Amino acid sequence: MLNGEAQARFSQVVMPHLGDALALARWLTGSAADAEDVVQEACMKAYAGIGGYAGGNARAWLLTIVRNASYTWLARNRSREVVAVGDLNDLDDMSAGHRDHSPDDDGPEANLIAKADLAALEDAIAALPEPFRETLVLRDINGLSYREIAAMLDVPIGTVMSRLARARGQLMSDLGRAR
Fold first, then answer.
1. Contact assessment for residue 152 and residue 64, using Cβ atoms and an 8 Å cutoff
2. What is the pLDDT of residues 1-50, one digit of tens each?
3. Nearest residue to 65 (alpha-carbon basis) of 133, 14, 27
4. Domains, in order of start, for the chain
5. DSSP collapsed to 3 states, 114-125
6. Is there a contact between 31 and 62 (Cβ–Cβ < 8 Å)?
7. Cα–Cα separations (whole angstroms), residue 96 to 4, 79, 91, 131
8. Rounded to two decimals, what is the model's pTM?
9. What is the 8-class DSSP label of residue 98?
């Protein structure tokens, strides 16, 4: 593939999904700065492999590269016990487009309650075991299908469904205890 063709294809396939790539990297690394490094590395890998991209779901293809780059980066730079998840600002950004009104319309008390609920949810997600947390983030935050997650994680679809159900159940249990 000629350089100009590769750049055009990269712009078409990768660039529209950089926000999702950064959000996933933030969840996996627990840091916005580290996520930027991971996404930069993932973009270099995506650019190098753009000629081999066979079509299909570009977002899932890029997120797979980001996931692999995240774990490679974490293995090089941190011990596994130190890994944390990012904040839920990504959820705020994603859900903002689905709301008919802003949180400020509800008043300061509602904003405080929403922030407390968001912090509790963040803590509950952070406490999930890594396979459950990863599956939950890929499905409920990134919106990937079960089939895409199964391919990305190299596990059967039933395992994805089981992990997701267990993650959601654990979240409900943890959040129920916090009230």
1. yes
2. 668 888 999 999 999 999 999 989 988 888 889 999 999 999 999 999 99
3. 14
4. 1-86 (1.10.1740.10), 107-179 (1.10.10.10)
5. HHHHHHHHHHHH
6. no
7. 36, 35, 8, 27
8. 0.68
9. T
